[in-house]
Write a structure and sequence with these properties.
By secondary structure, this protein is an alpha+beta fold. It is built from 11 helices and 16 strands.
Length: 466
């Protein structure tokens, strides 16, 4: 009988065929969703209206990752939500099976690997890179050593006009009070190696835009990380008559989406020099403010955009003297909720509510410019739905997700497992003398207990000449 380790158990998972290896689960219980490459067997499983990611992995790693993801959730870090670990699995032959780690599928998300495809725009590439860099910097500020940064281990979601990156795999992660420079550099080197390898893999498969160079991409990621880290933690010195630069530094960090909880400020004895260094920096400045005012839980750039509309509403209604929380409630009931309520039920899978509102604001600006008068939020929402939203692909899970999903112009051989390659890969494997016929007695064993490699090579050469 399998055992479930879970803080939030879902009883609907219990009847699933845990006695079957994950690779052999029936297709009717699986969902074909795009994902990265994994060293483990990973499947997306559907349980009524919920979709979970299931990964088969040895027990101590499954429990370690489950607890590590819980720690990241506690620290309000962008990561997938852990649901539980299934242990005590026994296969049909009576042999034990590896446990399964279960995480909740992140709605409206796609793996980074699927984004770097043919035709992707340069500005989109840079925004994806920036989101990945921000995620890595946030993790390092928390003292999290990832140890396995890769395109396959990161998901993205739309965040207003930008992207937000989410950690998927914490199997190799370690949480410390603070990371040393050496630990950060080690993580950065792993990221560089893994990312370069994946970019080269995509390039070799014809899935990377020809304008993108793998080496230039990893150089850009490393350089942008160092620039952001310096902005977040670097020491700044200036004259005693330039104290306004303290506020400027805080404003720059706020603009990047970070709160400064503590500044280390020291002055020279004569007061002519001031030295500042942020000591405690927390991500989510705008999203926390929006949550405090309205209860809306959004991505950082979505929050920034919604707060701008809230500030505009406050000015338009001449309520600068009114308490901000009261104005926020009015904006929520008079602007945000009426717009979101216009989405037809059959289109709810196109965008989440905050992203929809952000895109309606863009549409509203263009519509107002075109018409010569200010278009209302609700009228803009109806126009956006009819002109644009109906033609957009779904970003949440739909019934069509059960169909085989293409990558670029190619179709996966197994829609549930991209590691098996593509259906059109019909070429035979290259000849490998080490995996040829069983070794015969004419190959002498080496003195170390194995077979003599030189003898194997000699035999392969002789067969080639013959």
């Amino acid at each position: 009988m399998p055992r479930f380790l879970s803080a939030k158990p879902d009883a609907r998972l219990i009847p699933l065929p845990w006695g079957t290896p994950l690779a052999d689960w029936p297709a009717e219980q699986l969902v074909a969703l795009p994902r990265g490459i994994s060293r483990h067997v990973v499947r997306f499983i559907r349980v009524d209206d919920q979709v979970y990611a299931a990964k088969e992995v040895i027990e101590h790693l499954a429990i370690h990752e489950y607890r590590m993801l819980h720690d990241l959730m506690r620290l309000d870090t962008p990561a997938v939500e852990p649901l539980g670990v299934v242990t005590g699995r026994i296969g049909p032959d009576g042999e034990p099976l590896d446990p399964v780690l279960i995480t909740r599928h992140l709605q409206f998300s796609l793996p980074y690997r699927s984004l770097f495809s043919s035709g992707v725009r340069q500005d989109t590439v840079m925004r994806l890179i920036d989101a990945l860099v921000v995620l890595l910097a946030r993790l390092h500020l928390l003292g999290f050593l990832w140890g396995d940064v890769s395109l396959s281990n990161v998901l993205f979601r739309r965040d207003a006009g930008e992207f937000a990156a989410y950690l998927v795999d914490a199997e190799t992660g370690e949480l410390h009070d603070v990371l040393t420079k050496g630990q950060r550099e080690h993580d950065l080197q792993i990221a560089r190696t893994n990312l370069f390898g994946e970019f080269c893999d995509l390039e070799a498969g014809g899935l990377l835009d020809e304008a993108l160079d793998p080496l230039s991409l990893v150089d850009a990621i490393e350089n942008r990380y160092r620039e952001l880290w310096t902005e977040l933690t670097g020491v700044e010195e200036f004259g005693g008559n330039e104290l306004h630069r303290i506020e400027s530094r805080v404003r720059r960090l706020n603009a990047l989406g970070f709160d400064v909880a503590e500044l280390d400020i020291s002055t020279s004895r004569d007061g002519t020099k001031v030295r500042i260094q942020p000591k405690v920096v927390d991500a989510g400045h705008h999203s926390r403010r929006l949550m405090r005012l309205t209860g809306l839980d959004t991505e950082e750039n979505q929050a920034r955009r919604l707060l701008n509309d809230l500030d505009t509403f406050r000015a338009r209604t001449s309520q600068g003297h009114v308490d901000e929380s009261q104005v926020a409630h009015q904006w929520l009931t008079q602007c945000f909720e009426p717009v979101v309520d216009t989405i037809p039920p059959e289109l709810l899978s196109k965008r989440d509510a905050a992203q929809f509102f952000h895109e309606v604001l863009d549409y509203r600006w263009y519509a107002s410019q075109r018409n010569g008068y200010e278009v209302s939020h609700v009228d803009a929402a109806h126009g956006y739905i009819n002109d644009i939203l109906r033609n957009l692909p779904d970003e949440a899970i739909s019934e069509d997700a059960m169909e085989q999903l293409p990558e670029g112009n190619r179709v996966l051989a197994n829609p549930f497992d991209p590691s098996q390659g593509y259906a059109d890969d019909t070429a035979e494997n290259p000849y490998d003398p080490w995996e040829d016929d069983p070794v015969t007695d004419d190959v002498a064993p080496s003195p170390f207990g194995g077979f003599d490699i030189e003898a194997l090579r000699a035999r392969a050469e002789a067969e080639g000449k013959g």
